[in-house]
Amino acid sequence: MLSFLARLGSRLAVIGLMALVAGPALAQSRIKDLVDIEGVRENQLIGYGLVVGLNGTGDTLNNSPFTRQSLQAMLERLGVNTRGVTMRTGNVAAVMVTAKLPPFGTQGTRIDIVVSALGDSKSLKGGTLLVTPLLGADGNVYAVAQGTVAIAGFEAEGQAAKITRGVPTVGRIANGAIIEREIEFVLPRMNSLRLALRNPDLTTARRIAAAINDFVGGPTAEPLDRGTVNVTVPKNFQGNIVRLLTEVEQLRVEPDQTARVVIDEQSGIIVMGRDVRVSTVAVAQGNLTVTVTEGPQVSQPQAFSNGRTVVAPRTQIDVEEDGHKLAVVESGVSLQQLVDGLNALGIGPRDMISILQAIKASGAIQAEIEVM
Fold first, then answer.
1. Rounded CA gap, 26 and 111, in Å?
2. Is pTM, for the whole model, over 0.85?
3. Angle of helix 241-249 versus helix 202-216 axis, rounded to 10
4. Of the candidates 154, 179, 204, which is a domain's last residue?
């Protein structure tokens, strides 16, 4: 019996030790999910084009002079002269075309594009985008787009009713653009890299650098500031920096964060971080309700008198104060205790926002409050 209890106790101790070890690990994140590698990034592309083939839902040429001018210029390039001719077609729409050039996008690779109406077009359904060059921020053409526009919304209209679902003036073309120019970025030749933290924090930057140094076995990474970690490529990874990044991205660290309370007053949403702490403070919340009731009464004169019937106003005012007793929030309580304490007062999100702002104004909450 004693040996059985001893074995049971040892097993429980091992399970408890595993829980202690696995608890913090669950809060750890991969470096891949915390940083962006400088230079490995997307680039925005934009272009102006025409969508044709619309079933009378295109731009009104009299109201959209840019559509008329673009249509005339395109026809002239094809050898058709329309100068001085009144055009009344409603099957053409001017659009803005946007896309994202992925990092290391090679020439000939296809990318998705988004097409958005620029004029007074009602719908782009069934339209075809003509050849449209896509420009980068430097003014160079990096891709060329063309294809059939697919939209998710629709619009139906009758003489007395109209219904619109989604946005029929915005569409998408899968693989609708071909990359024609590559952005030069030679990753294997770099001797150092900079990791940009998505949520800048000094503690997180130091932990990332320490995790990389432990993996490499030397002072390779160094935090430059709260948002940047510089990594010098070790000699054994020279010429094979992709392998280094692959290994570094899988390292796990526990990110730190600033104690912050985010409040959206329009929707009543409150988001509080786990490190929010409150000093000792007493909180009370109450509602004052004033009710005004009008009960007019008819006053009639005595029989055979010379009086007349009148309406006598009667007003009753009731004041009701629905208040709660003071609730004491102890010093250094956790987020869960703070939420439980505020919920115990029986208040809603709107009143909770006011209470949190009042606690912050009193200096009793050690957190940053951000109102959206």
1. 36
2. no
3. 120
4. 179
